[in-house]
Amino acid sequence: MIAASTHKIEVSLKSEYGNAESLSAAAVLKSANAPSVTKVRKSRLYEIRGNFTVTHINRLSRDLLCDPITEDFRILSQPPSTQGPFWKVEVRLKPTVLDPEADTVKNAMVEMGFPAPDFIRIAAVYKIESKCGKPQIEAAAIRSLLNPVINLYSITACS
What pTM does this model have? Predict the structure, then answer.
C-alpha cells in the first residue's frame, strides 16, 4: 500500500502565450500602491493529499490539471526555475469556505480511476517582479488580489 503524502503541482501558461490575468494583476498592483511592479505571472497551485505515487501525480497533472498545448506543470518537489528576485503571493480559500473547483477535480480523479484524494485545495499563485518591500507588496495584494474575508495568503521573497 502507498503511504498518504501531500503533492503540490503548479500549472502555468506557457511563456509564449499572453496572459491577460497576469497583465491585469500587474496593472491592479501598480494602481494599489506598488508602482515598481514590472511583471506578474499568475499560476494555479493544486495541493493534493492521498495515496498517490509520483507516476500517478505526473499522469494526473498531464491528463487532468493542465492543457498540454498552452500550459506547463511543475511538481514542486522539483527545484524551482526562476529569473531574478521576485515576490510569491499564494492566495487560497480559508478551510471553512467551500471549494467547488477542488470538488470537481476530486470527482474527475475518481472517474479517471484514481483513488479519491484525502484532501485537495486549489490556490492562485502570483509571482511578482518588483523593487517593493514586503509591507508594500502585502498592502497591495490585500487591496487587489484577495478578499481577506474568504482568503488566506502567504507572501515569500524568492530568487
Answer: 0.85
Banded pLDDT at 10 (limits 50, 70, 90): very high
Place of cell 508594500: 136
Give CA–CA dist 120/47, Å, rounded.
6
Q: How far apart are CA 92 and CA 80, in angstroms?
A: 20
In single-letter form, the type of residue at position 117 comes to: P
C-alpha cell, 76: 514542486
For the stretch 95-106, pLDDT in tens is 999 999 999 999
**Which pLDDT value is given to residue 79?**
47
Q: Domains in the chain, start-ordered, CATH in brackets?
A: 5-158 (3.30.1280.10)
Q: How far apart are alpha carbons 35 and 132 in whole angstroms?
A: 8
- Looking up cell 500517478 gives 56
Q: Which residue(s) pair with 42 in the sheet?
A: 126
Q: Can you tell me the distance from the alpha carbon of 110 to that of 115, in angstroms, rounded to the nearest whole number?
A: 6
